[in-house]
Amino acid sequence: RLVREFVAQNNTSQIKHVIQILSQEFALSQHPHSRKGGLIGLAACSIALGKDSGLYLKELIEPVLTCFNDADSRLRYYACEALYNIVKVARGSVLPHFNVLFDGLSKLAADPDPNVKSGSELLDRLLKDIVTESNQFDLVGFIPLLRERIYSNNQYARQFIISWILVLESVPDINLLDYLPEILDGLFQILGDNSKEIRKMCEVALGEFLKEIKKNPPSVKFAEMANILVIHCQAADDLIQLTAMCWMREFIQLAGRVMLPYSSGILTAVLPCLSYDDRKKNIKEVANVCNQSLMKLVIPEDDEMDEAKQATAPPAEPPSEEPVPEQEAVSSGESMFTWAVRSVVRLLSFLCSSERIQVTLNLDGIVQVLDCHLHDTSIGMMTRIAVLKWLYHLYIKTPRKMFRHTDSLFPILLRTLSDESDEVILKDLEVLAEIASSPAGQTEGHGPSETPDPRPGQVELHIPGRNSQLSASGMKGLECSPSTPTMNSYFYKFMINLLKRFSSERKLLETRGAFIIRQLCLLLNAENIFHSMADILLREEDLKFASTMVHTLNTILLTSSELFQLRNQLKDLRTPESRNLFCCLYRSWCHNPVTTVSLCFLTQNYKHAYDLIQKFGDLEVTVDFLTEVDKLVQLIECPIFTYLRLQLLDVKNNPYLIKALYGLLMLLPQSSAFQLLSHRLQCVPNPELMQSADGSRASAGSKRSAASNIDYTELLQHFDKVQHKHLEARHQRAGRAEQLERRGVL
């Protein structure tokens, strides 16, 4: 009644005096009953003031908020009730004081007393109604407080925060999306709350934000939220990780190349998820979409971004050009308006181009992440496959930039060939084949047979010069092979290191050697592969490995469907390239006598095969040697040598073929292979015709007229030299074994 009288008299000083007495002497008194009375009195003042209460809100609210911290729960309830009455009367006038009200309510939301909590909920709903119906809410001033409170660990406080975010999000005049980067991290942390209700509320809030993002992508600050999502995509909580991954998927699809600068972080988060099992199937599927979408953002233009940036960068000092006077420009037929428009267009185009250039691919960061994942032996198969797909994609789209990293990637790519998964090895071979064949890896100014100064850390293949004419012709054949222009210095480095790996890991050669070489023949040119490997093996110091490797290559050459074309090329030796290839293979094949004979059978050099078999009597015949002869007999019965078996019908023109086969028969003990070959030779018609002099068989010589420039005498001499080396090596190994045995006895 007293306040109403003062209002009627417009006596503001007395009104302030009454409020001051109620605040200082009662609401802030040491006696609890006085504080209760003061709170009731302040609420009564607000009711009496009516619409004028907005003029005194600071004086009315502050003492009430102080009582929110009172130790007496009944007093806190009275304070809550008093503030409810004050806010109900003032309505929109309380918005300038919203932050202090929100701060006080956030504390009451976690109050242990149910009555206080119930009273705070009533006040909270009232305040939400006021904010919803008003268009004067100060969002900018509120965001710092929201950003601070959102990291609360109290469940009730979190529930209070989420409820307010949902309310603000629903108000059309309040654009909370602009400030999402400031609260997104806190929202994801609340998503991991133990309370299902709070998690559900947070899911709804994040879902609403994502809907708004999809509706209006141009106004979204994708770049500011990218790293937040990267962090939560690696969360241990499945719900947080799945939600963050879904957001990442939408960001990549909506923002496009804006996300490229964050590719390394995204890959760090996404790649491990690709190896999840069915328990995390949803996360795995979304991560796969993220990975594929991100990969599509890399374009060939990224390989030229550095040059483009340099080309469009403004010069340090502008060129000294004489300015064109405005009058001269106008008089030359261009109006001042047109000149101004063109200037603005040029300025805008420059700004737009600069903005595009700023979105560049962080290739160094991406390669570092991929390299780390390849080195990590604990990652799953699907992750390793995805890493290799990324490397292949980058070598296709940005080859020039990627070759800066090839020296560092090359060792781990070679080690990956020992992976347990065939799929991983296939992808690894695709990457290595692309490295070996990409024009971007070509060494400028040096051919494969030259000896340039090697770059640090790069292994170069130096092919030594040979005095014989065959060596020169062999090299010529390598240079003229169909795919040589697409081969680069890494091709030879790859071949050398692949053979080194086979030499150091014999198990890899036994289990995966044929598989690896066959796949390489599909991905690269088979002739180049066999030519280079034969040339490298020719200088191999480990003769036992050279023999094993030659046997492996020969088996692949004779049996693999991928090498059908190469076999046909060698079968006739009609071209200089095929003859050069034969000579190159022959020199290395000499590490294994039986494979040398099989190569002669393949190339229809039957007389030379017979000459070689005649020399087998001087060799040390071991069980392994006889086993290889046995395998050769089995091969002769295979479809690969159908033409050879048919030539047995023409005894007149193929006497040395029959002699060579009889030579193999004489080498074999009485075994199943002996019986097999013996039965085959019994089918040869007119065996009497085999007794013929060499000179009476002009037709047999004419069959090899195309290969008349091959010096078979020199080839036989080379065969003798190689076998002599092998004999010495065996004696040395036997001597070392005997010494070790003696030491053991001593």
UniProtKB/TrEMBL annotation:
Species of origin: Asarcornis scutulata
Record carries keyword Glycoprotein: no
Transmembrane segments annotated in the record for this chain: none
Vacuolar protein 14 C-terminal Fig4-binding domain: residues covered: 506-684
Region described as Disordered: spans on this chain: 306-328, 438-462
Quaternary data: Forms pentamers. Component of the PI(3,5)P2 regulatory complex/PAS complex, at least composed of PIKFYVE, FIG4 and VAC14. VAC14 nucleates the assembly of the complex and serves as a scaffold by pentamerizing into a star-shaped structure, which can bind a single copy each of PIKFYVE and FIG4 and coordinates their activities. Interacts with NOS1.
SUPFAM superfamilies: ARM repeat
Gene Ontology terms: cellular component: endosome membrane; PAS complex
Name of the protein in its database record: Protein VAC14 homolog
InterPro entries reported for this sequence: ARM-like, ARM-type_fold, Vac14, VAC14_Fig4p-bd
Role: Scaffold protein component of the PI(3,5)P2 regulatory complex which regulates both the synthesis and turnover of phosphatidylinositol 3,5-bisphosphate (PtdIns(3,5)P2). Pentamerizes into a star-shaped structure and nucleates the assembly of the complex. The pentamer binds a single copy each of PIKFYVE and FIG4 and coordinates both PIKfyve kinase activity and FIG4 phosphatase activity, being required to maintain normal levels of phosphatidylinositol 3-phosphate (PtdIns(3)P) and phosphatidylinositol 5-phosphate (PtdIns(5)P).
Keyword annotations of the record: Endoplasmic reticulum, Endosome, Membrane, Microsome, Repeat
Keyword Endoplasmic reticulum: yes
GO terms of biological process kind: phosphatidylinositol biosynthetic process
